[in-house]
Protein backbone atom coordinates (compact mmCIF):
# COMPACT_ATOMS: atom_id res chain seq x y z
CA UNK A 1 0.00 0.00 0.00
CA UNK A 2 1.63 3.18 -1.19
CA UNK A 3 -1.30 5.60 -1.61
CA UNK A 4 -4.34 6.10 0.61
CA UNK A 5 -7.20 8.36 -0.51
CA UNK A 6 -9.38 9.63 2.34
CA UNK A 7 -12.83 10.97 1.46
CA UNK A 8 -14.18 13.77 3.63
CA UNK A 9 -17.42 15.72 3.71
CA UNK A 10 -18.73 18.64 5.75
CA UNK A 11 -19.86 16.40 8.61
CA UNK A 12 -17.92 17.26 11.79
CA UNK A 13 -17.22 13.54 12.19
CA UNK A 14 -14.91 13.77 9.18
CA UNK A 15 -12.19 14.75 11.63
CA UNK A 16 -12.32 11.25 13.12
CA UNK A 17 -12.31 9.65 9.67
CA UNK A 18 -9.27 11.70 8.66
CA UNK A 19 -7.46 10.89 11.91
CA UNK A 20 -8.09 7.14 11.68
CA UNK A 21 -7.38 7.01 7.94
CA UNK A 22 -4.17 8.99 8.40
CA UNK A 23 -3.01 6.70 11.23
CA UNK A 24 -3.62 3.66 9.03
CA UNK A 25 -1.77 5.22 6.10
CA UNK A 26 1.23 6.10 8.27
CA UNK A 27 1.39 2.52 9.62
CA UNK A 28 1.44 1.34 6.02
CA UNK A 29 4.07 3.92 5.04
CA UNK A 30 1.67 5.31 2.44
CA UNK A 31 1.10 8.73 0.93
CA UNK A 32 -2.14 10.44 1.95
CA UNK A 33 -4.53 12.51 -0.14
CA UNK A 34 -7.72 14.01 1.22
CA UNK A 35 -10.54 14.30 -1.30
CA UNK A 36 -13.68 16.38 -0.95
CA UNK A 37 -16.42 16.28 -3.55
CA UNK A 38 -18.62 19.27 -4.24
CA UNK A 39 -22.01 18.15 -5.52
CA UNK A 40 -22.84 19.37 -9.01
CA UNK A 41 -23.58 23.05 -8.54
CA UNK A 42 -23.72 24.01 -12.20
CA UNK A 43 -27.53 24.09 -12.13
CA UNK A 44 -27.37 27.22 -9.95
CA UNK A 45 -26.34 29.21 -13.01
CA UNK A 46 -28.83 27.68 -15.44
CA UNK A 47 -31.81 29.74 -16.54
CA UNK A 48 -34.50 27.03 -16.68
CA UNK A 49 -37.80 27.62 -18.49
CA UNK A 50 -41.09 27.53 -16.58
CA UNK A 51 -42.08 24.11 -15.38
CA UNK A 52 -45.09 22.84 -13.43
CA UNK A 53 -46.33 26.42 -13.17
CA UNK A 54 -43.11 27.53 -11.47
CA UNK A 55 -41.55 30.69 -12.87
CA UNK A 56 -38.81 31.08 -10.26
CA UNK A 57 -35.80 30.38 -12.41
CA UNK A 58 -36.85 32.81 -15.12
CA UNK A 59 -37.53 35.60 -12.65
CA UNK A 60 -34.55 35.01 -10.41
CA UNK A 61 -31.32 36.89 -11.00
CA UNK A 62 -28.81 34.12 -10.29
CA UNK A 63 -25.40 35.30 -9.21
CA UNK A 64 -23.02 33.35 -11.43
CA UNK A 65 -20.29 33.94 -8.88
CA UNK A 66 -22.09 31.52 -6.54
CA UNK A 67 -20.50 28.53 -8.28
CA UNK A 68 -17.04 30.04 -8.02
CA UNK A 69 -17.59 30.91 -4.36
CA UNK A 70 -18.81 27.39 -3.55
CA UNK A 71 -15.70 25.95 -5.19
CA UNK A 72 -13.47 28.23 -3.13
CA UNK A 73 -15.23 27.28 0.12
CA UNK A 74 -14.83 23.57 -0.70
CA UNK A 75 -11.18 24.00 -1.68
CA UNK A 76 -10.48 25.94 1.52
CA UNK A 77 -12.21 23.23 3.56
CA UNK A 78 -10.13 20.34 2.22
CA UNK A 79 -6.87 22.33 2.42
CA UNK A 80 -7.60 23.36 6.02
CA UNK A 81 -8.33 19.74 6.92
CA UNK A 82 -4.97 18.70 5.47
CA UNK A 83 -3.11 21.42 7.40
CA UNK A 84 -4.77 20.13 10.58
CA UNK A 85 -2.72 16.93 10.19
CA UNK A 86 0.49 18.96 10.42
CA UNK A 87 2.12 16.86 7.69
CA UNK A 88 3.35 18.73 4.60
CA UNK A 89 3.31 15.46 2.65
CA UNK A 90 -0.50 15.25 2.74
CA UNK A 91 -2.05 16.36 -0.54
CA UNK A 92 -5.61 17.37 -1.35
CA UNK A 93 -8.03 17.11 -4.21
CA UNK A 94 -11.34 18.87 -4.67
CA UNK A 95 -13.68 17.27 -7.20
CA UNK A 96 -17.18 18.04 -8.48
CA UNK A 97 -20.11 15.89 -9.47
CA UNK A 98 -21.71 12.74 -8.11
CA UNK A 99 -19.69 11.87 -5.02
CA UNK A 100 -19.08 8.16 -5.54
CA UNK A 101 -18.11 8.57 -9.21
CA UNK A 102 -15.81 11.49 -8.44
CA UNK A 103 -14.01 9.54 -5.70
CA UNK A 104 -13.63 6.45 -7.88
CA UNK A 105 -12.39 8.49 -10.85
CA UNK A 106 -9.78 10.29 -8.78
CA UNK A 107 -8.73 7.08 -7.01
CA UNK A 108 -7.97 5.61 -10.43
CA UNK A 109 -6.27 8.78 -11.72
CA UNK A 110 -4.09 9.06 -8.58
CA UNK A 111 -3.42 5.30 -8.53
CA UNK A 112 -4.73 4.93 -4.98
CA UNK A 113 -4.16 1.58 -3.30
CA UNK A 114 -6.95 2.13 -0.77
CA UNK A 115 -9.93 4.41 -0.22
CA UNK A 116 -10.89 5.39 3.33
CA UNK A 117 -14.46 6.54 3.99
CA UNK A 118 -16.72 7.20 6.92
CA UNK A 119 -20.11 5.55 6.97
CA UNK A 120 -22.82 7.76 8.41
CA UNK A 121 -25.49 5.96 10.35
CA UNK A 122 -28.60 6.61 8.27
CA UNK A 123 -31.85 4.77 8.75
CA UNK A 124 -32.37 1.46 6.95
CA UNK A 125 -35.16 3.06 4.90
CA UNK A 126 -32.82 5.83 3.71
CA UNK A 127 -30.22 3.27 2.66
CA UNK A 128 -32.80 1.21 0.76
CA UNK A 129 -34.28 4.23 -1.05
CA UNK A 130 -31.14 6.28 -1.68
CA UNK A 131 -28.14 4.06 -1.09
CA UNK A 132 -25.00 5.58 0.32
CA UNK A 133 -21.78 6.90 -1.12
CA UNK A 134 -19.90 4.08 0.59
CA UNK A 135 -22.18 1.38 -0.84
CA UNK A 136 -21.97 2.85 -4.35
CA UNK A 137 -18.18 2.90 -4.12
CA UNK A 138 -18.09 -0.66 -2.82
CA UNK A 139 -20.21 -1.79 -5.79
CA UNK A 140 -17.91 -0.20 -8.37
CA UNK A 141 -14.39 -0.17 -6.91
CA UNK A 142 -11.44 -2.26 -8.02
CA UNK A 143 -9.36 -1.36 -4.96
CA UNK A 144 -9.82 -2.02 -1.23
CA UNK A 145 -12.04 0.29 0.80
CA UNK A 146 -11.55 0.86 4.52
CA UNK A 147 -14.82 1.92 6.13
CA UNK A 148 -14.91 3.79 9.42
CA UNK A 149 -18.32 3.64 11.12
CA UNK A 150 -19.47 7.04 12.30
CA UNK A 151 -21.75 7.37 15.25
CA UNK A 152 -22.28 10.60 17.16
CA UNK A 153 -20.90 9.16 20.38
CA UNK A 154 -17.66 7.98 18.70
CA UNK A 155 -16.17 11.36 17.92
UniProtKB/TrEMBL annotation:
Pfam families for the chain: Usp
Compartments, as annotated in UniProt: Cytoplasm
Cellular component, GO annotation:
cytoplasm
Q: Which residues form the UspA domain?
A: 1-149
Q: Which InterPro entries match?
A: Rossmann-like_a/b/a_fold (IPR014729), Universal_stress_UspA (IPR006015), UspA (IPR006016)
Q: Looking at the record's lineage, which domain of life comes first?
A: Bacteria
Keywords, comma-separated and alphabetical? Cytoplasm
Query: Which family is annotated?
Result: Belongs to the universal stress protein A family.
List the protein's name.
Answer: Universal stress protein
Give the originating organism: Christiangramia sediminis
Amino acid sequence: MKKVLIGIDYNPNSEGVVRKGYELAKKLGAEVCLIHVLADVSYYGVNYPSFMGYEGYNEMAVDLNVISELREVARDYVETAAKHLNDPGVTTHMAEGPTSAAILNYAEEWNADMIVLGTHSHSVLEKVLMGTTASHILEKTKIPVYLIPIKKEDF
